[in-house]
Amino acid sequence: MAERRRGRKREHYYRMAKRAGYRARSAFKLKQLNRRYKLIRRGDVVVDLGAAPGGWLQVAREEVGEKGFVLGVDLQGIAKLPYENVKTLVADITDASTPELLGNNLPRAADVVLSDVSPKISGVWSVDHARSVELARTALTIAERMLAPSGRSLIKVFQGEYFEDFVSKIREKFEFVKISKPPASRKGSAEAYAIAKGFKRF
Predict the structure, then answer these.
(1) CATH number of the domain at 2-199, please?
(2) With DSSP H G I counted as helix, E B as strand and the rest as coil, what are the percentages for the chain, rounded to 5?
(3) pTM of the model
(4) How far apart are CA 62 and CA 20, in angstroms?
(5) Is the peptide bond before 99 cis (omega within 30 degrees of 0)?
(6) Which residue among the candidates 31, 156, 173, 197 is catalytic per the annotation?
(7) Among this protein's residues, is 156 annotated catalytic?
(8) CA atoms within 13 A on the CB side of 148
């Protein structure tokens, strides 16, 4: 019964995404979190890590409007979006050269860094959790390089043994940190989102 309810929930957001023209049901996760925490604003420069297939890019573009700028990066190519102020790159966020590549493609320091990056699921929970935290740490490192003072970030991470240590690292870098799980997330999923505002650039 519980599995059936989860399936209905996934199908609900999938249908909503199709009707709204979003490329992925995950677009509603960002919409829900942004509605609650006001992460993305008009005119912002936004970096989206793990951006394929582009659902979060679409939502970010809606929020920044014509005067903002959105840069997406993923290991996979992303089909072009019909906006001049949305750009995508194919790159590995774990590569040491990627922060410089991102910086070279931004008009100025970012106001927001988003990360919906997930590891390739192995089915071994301890391995998947450790990989998720490592990717989240990489996203945090990129945020530190990209963000303007008082910038904002949203990073997905799987909960588990190393979760609190990761959250403590974010708290060192931002004035406000909140852990949230949007309604569009699957109920039994271990994913959580770290919302961080007020980047402390030392």
Answers:
(1) 3.40.50.150
(2) 40, 25, 35
(3) 0.91
(4) 12
(5) no
(6) 156
(7) yes
(8) 11
First vs last Cα of the chain: how many Å apart?
51
Q: Is 168 helix (H, G, I), strand (E, B) or coil?
A: helix
Please, are residues 124 and 109 in contact by the beta-carbon 8 Å criterion? no
How is residue 196 annotated by DSSP? Answer: E
Q: Is the pLDDT of residue 106 over 90?
A: yes
* Beta-bridge partners for 113: 47, 153
Lowest model confidence (mean pLDDT) among 17-31, 38-52, 65-79, 139-153? 17-31
Do the Cβ atoms of 46 and 111 come closer than 8 Å?
A: yes
pLDDT in tens, 15-60: 776 666 677 788 999 999 999 999 999 999 999 999 999 999 999 9
